[in-house]
Structures are given as structure tokens and as C-alpha cells.
Design brief:
By secondary structure, the chain is mainly beta. Helices cover 9% and strands 38% of the residues.
């Protein structure tokens, strides 16, 4: 019950049938109520008033400072801005970002701040890489092949098919390019690495199924450092293996767990400083293995 100058004494009643609060003139209402009914209505109104007062006494979203504020979405582009199962990313020499938009079967290109540039493709892209000339390579998992494009998405060449022979692939899930332009393909279901020239000519291969040195169990990420050494995220062996550019085994580390230096199916983007790779492997995101060398 409250007093409103222009309405006299009023009371509030919750209308269970209409799902709303009715504000009524009490001089007409209370004359029809018994003493117990008036006490019930007063108690009911006080409960509602208490809830309203608690709400009003709190910080106003429009007046008080917010603890967290939305800044911006990345990327910034016209709808639809979203991806479906983005598997991998790569960055060219100008800082542009290429996203392997796997579920949509395409590559999308953005500026470093997320502004949309272009997109292309209708294939099962599982990984993406960019060479020093700005050409873009994509691993087509659904057809077992590698595709090469210009920076704006114009088709250049492709090679490979499904199979187990040289230059054949079974669900290639990773791709990396060294400083010479040679291509390293993570041939996941064949548990091996294949190396090619920039035009797709086969150079060498290494790896087989297993848990020993130079053996893999569904590897999920690959990267090449500034010295040409190759790093492989050996997903189901829960470790990282390091090789020379021709496939000679150097070392490996890691086992299953959540402690530092342990991994849980490392098939994600792992970032490292190749100048000191032992200290900086860290899980970053889905789909590949990315390396950059800090000169600072």
C-alpha cells in the first residue's frame, strides 16, 4: 500500500489469471475486503515493493560503470561474418590473415585488424599456408590434394590424389612452407610427412604408424622454423617431434597430461619462438602448428 497524491491510497494485487500487477483505488477495494484479506493484500504488496526497491537501489546499467564492455568483433565484415569449423590460419608478409574455413569449404582473407578482403573455394580445406612470394597453399582433405593460389585467390595449380603412393594423400591436415619455398604436407591418415617443390614435384617423405622416433599416430600439426627444421604435433602420441628439412629425426618431447611439457592430443595451433623452442610451446587454437622467430 502506498499514497499517491493524485490517486489517494492504492494497493497492488497480482492477477494470477492475467499475469500482471493491478493497481487499484483502495477506497473502493478495501470496503469489500475482510480484515484477513486486507492483511494478506498488505503483506503481498510489501513483498512486491521490497523487490522493486532492491532492484532500483542497484547500479543502473545506463548510469553506472560496466565491469566489462564489448569492444569489437573480429573479423569486421558484412554478414555472414561467421565461420564453420575454421581449421587453420596463415599470415603473409604484409600481415594479411588467411583462414581455412573448413566447414564452408573456402579460404577467407582479412586485414590484420579483421576487415574482410576476399574469399574463394569450394573444397574441404583442412589447412592453409603462404610462401614468401605471397602464394597461398591449401590442403584439400576431402579430395586428397594440394591447391595453389595467388594472394587474391586465382587458381595456379594442384597436385595429388587419394592414396598411399608418393604424392598421394589420405586426409592431409597440415601444410607448411620453408624459406626456399618447399612444401611440407602432413599426410595424416598415412602417418607421414611429404615434401614437394613449389610446383608440386615430389622430393621425399618420412614417417610411418607407431610411437617410436620418426613414427606418428595421426599427426595433427606441422610447422617449419627459420632454420628449416620441421616440427610435427603427433596428436595421438601426445608429443612434438623435430626433424631436419630432409626428414632426419632430431628429438622429441611430451607425453599425455596437463602439466607443463605435457599434451592432450596436440592437434592445435602451437606457437613457438624457434630461437628458444623448448620454453614457448603453448596451445593456441585449432588446426595447425605456427612458428615465428623473435629477433627482439
Amino acid at each position: 500500500m502506498m499514497i499517491v497524491p493524485w490517486a489517494g491510497i492504492v494497493t497492488a494485487e497480482w492477477d494470477q489469471n492475467q499475469g500482471q500487477v493491478d493497481i487499484c483505488n483502495s477506497t473502493k477495494l478495501e470496503s469489500k475486503m475482510t480484515g484477513s484479506q486486507q492483511k494478506y493484500r498488505l503483506l503481498h504488496f510489501l513483498m512486491i515493493s521490497t523487490v522493486v526497491l532492491v532492484y532500483l537501489s542497484g547500479p543502473s546499467p545506463s548510469l553506472g560503470a560496466e565491469a566489462y564492455r564489448f569492444k569489437r568483433m573480429w573479423p569486421t565484415m558484412k554478414q555472414p561474418w561467421y565461420f564453420v569449423q575454421p581449421n587453420d590460419t596463415a599470415v603473409d608478409g604484409e600481415g594479411n590473415v588467411y583462414v581455412a574455413d573448413g566447414g564452408n569449404g573456402r579460404i577467407q582473407k582479412f586485414t590484420a585488424d579483421g576487415s574482410f578482403i576476399t574469399k574463394w573455394g569450394e573444397f574441404g580445406v583442412g589447412a592453409v599456408a603462404v610462401d614468401n612470394n605471397g602464394d597461398v597453399y591449401a590442403a584439400d582433405r576431402s579430395r586428397g590434394r594440394i591447391l595453389k593460389f595467388t594472394a587474391d585467390g586465382s587458381f595456379i595449380a594442384h597436385w595429388g590424389q587419394e592414396g598411399t603412393g608418393d604424392g598421394e594423400f589420405d586426409s592431409p591436415a597440415g601444410i607448411a612452407v620453408d624459406a626456399n619455398g618447399d612444401i611440407f604436407v602432413l599426410d595424416t591418415w598415412n602417418n607421414r610427412i611429404q615434401k614437394f617443390t613449389p610446383d608440386g614435384s615430389f622430393i621425399t617423405k618420412w614417417g610411418s604408424e607407431g610411437s617410436g622416433d620418426g613414427e606418428f599416430n595421426l599427426p595433427g600439426g606441422i610447422a617449419v622454423d627459420a632454420n628449416g627444421d620441421v616440427y610435427v604435433a603427433d596428436a595421438h602420441n601426445n608429443g612434438i617431434q623435430k626433424f631436419t628439412s630432409d626428414g632426419s629425426f632430431i628429438t622429441k618431447w611430451g607425453n599425455m597430461g596437463i602439466a607443463p611439457g605435457q599434451f592432450w592430443y596436440p592437434s592445435h595451433n602451437l606457437g613457438t619462438d624457434p630461437c628458444n623452442p623448448w620454453e614457448s610451446f603453448e596451445e593456441k587454437g585449432p588446426g595447425g602448428l605456427g612458428i615465428s622467430c623473435s629477433t627482439a
